[in-house]
Structures are given as structure tokens and as C-alpha cells.
Amino acid sequence: MNNPERNEFKAPSLQILADRLNLAHIEESFHFPRYFEIETVNACNARCVMCTIDDWEKVRNPIMSDKLFAKFAEEVSNHHERVDRVCLNRDGEPTLDKNLHKKIKLLKDAGIKEVTLATNVQLLDEKRIHQYLDAGLDDIMLSIDGNTKKTFEEIRVDLDYETVVQNSLNLIKIRDKKNLPLIIRLRMIILDSNQHEVQDWISFWSDKVGPNDQVYAKVAHTWGNQLNRETDENVQAYADKPCIAPFSSMIIHTNGTVPMCSIDYASKMKIGDFSKNSIAEIWNDEPMMNIRKLHANSCRNEIALCRGCRIWEEDRKVWS
Fold first, then answer.
1. What angle (nearest 5°) sits at the alpha carbon of residue 76, between those of residues 108 and 7?
2. φ, ψ for residue 139 (rounded to 5)?
3. Which residues face 211 on adjacent strands?
4. Positive or negative CA dihedral for 287, 289, 295, 299?
């Protein structure tokens, strides 16, 4: 286990991160991750034009084993007071997991404050809606990248626009009928092919959701320079700004591989293996601590995936 000297984490920019995490000092983040994305399915029913699916689908176990997920649930239950959120997907489509509702309930029974997931909505039929809501799902993000059938289906290849819209409306209706506090977030990824529909899309969905829901558009990111290259301007602008992810979030793929962060879909910067070690061990082991040190000392550009990456910057969102 690595025990860093406190003076390595004294930059004022790190205190800004600590404030975002509601911590007195950034070193408190070393105890245990606050946020998790755990991939129970490594597959998808869509072929979206901005996705990296050809690089990750079928290279890992298609389904996370029940044994590995049970190990995850047990460990986070022992630290539930520190865990703010668990997202039940990463790269794959979570609704392909026929036992997803059981995993939601297991985490809620373990004391996790917020269990969430993101979906392309195609398979979110009424049966799944009732299963997820009854299991205690707290939050869900619906990805809908167009306001017309033509635009949507050119981006979300293999999905059906009418089905996605109807499933989304059914979710809102059933949530309201059950009088549940589920937060529904509707997100549009802004691309050259759909930017002309952003305002109409926001207007359409803003009229459908409740007062606590969210409707927003977000500029597509580069997957850490893997899908597209960040501009030199962004690389320079963020060179001395530490990212919040190494101090807050852990990703676990279906086979237990733990990559550096959510954009590291191919685990180019592997920091551990949850099938062999605990979350706590991985979180404070040398690979993770070295990444933190680089970010803390304005050296993030030494990591190719981090050069100019702005995925967790809030100014990337256009809120309704």
C-alpha cells in the first residue's frame, strides 16, 4: 500500500476538488471511492455513430458473474456511508441484464444512497419499468439524441425512435402513478448532425417531465483522444487542472478489470483487478496513487487519455 506525503496534495486546485466532494481535504478521498460505475453487461443492442463499441464489445466477459457482483455488493455495503452513487452500467446497455432489478435491490438493501443507470431506452418496456421502480431505483438517464425519427435513427443505429419515445413517456407516467421519487434525466449528445434540433428537443421533453427531473444537451467528448483528438487549446487549458475522477470514482468491468476512469474503455491504464483484490486495495495501490500524483502536480498531460479531457466539467452541459 502506498502512503503519500501530504505535501504532494496541497495544490489550491485540489482544494477545489475537495469542496466539490464535500471533503475538508482531498486526502480524505483516499479512504474509499464515492462513485462507482459497475458494468454488468458488456454488450449493446445499438451501434451509435459516436460509440467505441467495436473496440470493447466481446473483448470482456459478456455478463458479470453473480459471484463477482455479490462481492461488490458486500464490500460497498461495508462502506455505504462513504458511497454516494452506484451506476449499474459503463459501456454496455444495462437493460440487456435480465437480473438487473435484483442487482438494484441488492444495492439498496446494502444501504447505497443512490442507485442509477443510463439506457438507450429501446428495451425499457413496462415490465422492466415496474421491476426497476419496485426494486428501488433512484435515478435513470435516458439517452435520446434527436427530435425527429430521421435524425435519431441515423445516430442511434438499430434503435426505433417511436419505441424509445413511447418507453420514455411510459416511464414518466408509471413513475408518477406510483408517486415515486425517481429522478429522470433526459440527455441529448450534441453532434453536427443533430445540433439543429437541440432547442426543439429540449422544449419537447421539458413539457413532459416533472419538476425534479432534468433535460439537457451535452457536447460529445473524444473518449480521451481515442475517438477524436482534443484540440491543442484544450490540452493547454486543462494541463494544470486535476480531474476529479481519480479522487472520486471507480469503474469495474464485467471481468473485474478496473481501468483508470470511465473513458478508458479498453483498460489502457489498468489500475487493478477486482476479481483478485478488494476495492480498498485497488483504490490505494500504486497505479491509482501515481495517477493522482500526476494530476496533483500539473502533469496530467503525461497521460495520453487525460490530455485535454473535459468529460467531468460542468460547463459542457446546456440545461433547459
1. 135
2. -155, 145
3. none
4. negative
Say how many C-beta atoms besides its own lie within 10 A of residue 200's C-beta: 12
Residues in Cβ contact with 114 at an 8 Å cutoff, skipping those fewer than 6 apart: 84, 85, 86, 138, 139
pLDDT greater than 70 at residue 242: yes
Q: Which amino acid is at 233?
A: E
Q: Give pLDDT, residue 221.
A: 77
Taking the C-alpha atoms of residue 235 and residue 228, their distance in angstroms, rounded to an integer, is: 13
Residue 125 to residues 87, 171, 192, 266: CA-CA distances in angstroms?
Answer: 20, 8, 30, 31
pLDDT single digits (tens) 168-193 = 999 999 999 999 999 999 999 999 99
Give residue 119's region: left, alpha or beta (phi > 0; psi -120 to 50). Answer: beta
Provide the mean pLDDT of the chain. 92
Cell of 160: 426505433
Crossing angle of helices 126-135/161-178, nearest 10°? 40
The strand pairing partners of 118, in sequence order, are 141
pLDDT tier at 284, thresholds 50, 70, 90: very high
pLDDT of residue 186: 97
Query: Can you tell me the distance from the alpha carbon of 252 to that of 264, in angstroms, rounded to the nearest whole number?
Result: 11
- Residue 68: which of 277, 281, 283 has the closest Cα? 277
Q: Which residues contact 72 (CB under 8 A, 6 or more apart)?
A: 36, 38, 252, 274, 279
Question: What confidence score (pLDDT) does residue 312 get?
Answer: 82
On whether the pTM is more than 0.90, the answer is: yes
